[in-house]
């Protein structure tokens, strides 16, 4: 088969005939943006990218989510990889283990004051991306969010990405997943742009 006929989004000839292909390539650029911004910030703070992501996650999430198994699911990595990153952060005195009193074989991960300082320095690593998004008007942002939400939901259903705290997997969600959404916890209808991907009140359905 001629090279230009190969049906791949990474084939520039195919991109000119299909919007889907162009969207895939654009999303790949976003993955690069994240990778670059994360690397820069991690390097400056003598951390690996996953160590930095773990610190930020621990800073913003509840105790029952601050466990190795939960982190492995969150970052789509093996428990062994997460355990290595955790060991390294413990050696750097940025996190400590705390036994879970409800299950003494299990433990939570807590930030130390050095870990908290590191998260304060790095929490805005995606600032350049946020600034570009801020340039969109309200309608553009809403449409972008709704489209991305639909794509990520579809990937989640195919088992490719884990979304542990989003509305559609929450026991408080009621609706048709298209136009009608209601949160029983808030006792409020939700507009499309109000759906959550990382909700602190989420409980698995
Ligand atoms: S509690 Fe949060 S995740 Fe659950 S339906 Fe309400 S807003 Fe969505």
Write the layout of secondary structure elements.
Elements: H1 12-15, H2 19-44, H3 49-60, H4 68-74, H5 79-91, E1 95-100, E2 103-111, H6 113-122, H7 127-134, H8 138-157, E3 173-175, E4 181-183, E5 188-189
Antiparallel strand pairs: 1-2, 3-4, 4-5
This protein binds iron/sulfur cluster (SF4).
Residues 167, 170, 172-173, 183, 185-186, 196, 199, 201-202 line the site of iron/sulfur cluster (SF4).
Structure description:
With 205 residues, the chain is mainly alpha-helical. The protein has two domains: 127 residues, Winged helix-like DNA-binding domain superfamily/Winged helix DNA-binding domain (Arc Repressor Mutant, subunit A); 70 residues, no CATH class. 49% of the residues lie in helices and 11% in strands. It contains eight helices and five strands. The chain has a three-stranded antiparallel beta sheet, with no helix packed on it. Strands 1-2 form a two-stranded antiparallel sheet. A hairpin with a 5-residue loop joins strand 3 and strand 4. Helix 3 packs across helix 6 and helix 4 packs across helix 5. The site of iron/sulfur cluster has 11 residues, from loops. This is MarR family winged helix-turn-helix transcriptional regulator. InterPro entries: HTH_MarR-typ, WH-like_DNA-bd_sf, WH_DNA-bd_sf.
């Amino acid at each position: 088969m001629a090279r230009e006929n190969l049906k791949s989004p990474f084939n520039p000839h195919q991109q000119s005939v299909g919007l889907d292909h162009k969207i895939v390539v654009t999303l790949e650029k976003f993955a690069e943006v994240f990778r670059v911004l994360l690397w820069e910030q991690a390097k400056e703070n003598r951390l690996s990218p996953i160590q930095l992501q773990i610190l930020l996650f621990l800073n913003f999430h509840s105790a029952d989510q601050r466990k190795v198994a939960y982190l492995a699911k969150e970052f789509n990595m093996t428990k062994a990889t997460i355990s290595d990153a955790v060991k390294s952060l413990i050696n750097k005195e940025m996190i400590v283990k705390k036994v879970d009193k409800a299950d003494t074989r299990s433990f939570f991960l807590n930030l130390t004051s050095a870990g908290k300082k590191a998260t304060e320095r790095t929490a805005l690593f995606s600032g350049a991306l946020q600034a570009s998004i801020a340039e969109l008007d309200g309608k553009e942002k809403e449409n972008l969010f709704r489209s991305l939400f639909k794509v990520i939901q579809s990937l989640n259903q195919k088992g490719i990405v884990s979304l542990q705290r989003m509305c559609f997997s929450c026991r408080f969600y009621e609706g048709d997943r298209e136009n009608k959404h209601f949160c029983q916890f808030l006792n409020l209808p939700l507009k499309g742009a109000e759906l959550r991907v990382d909700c602190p009140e989420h409980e698995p359905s």
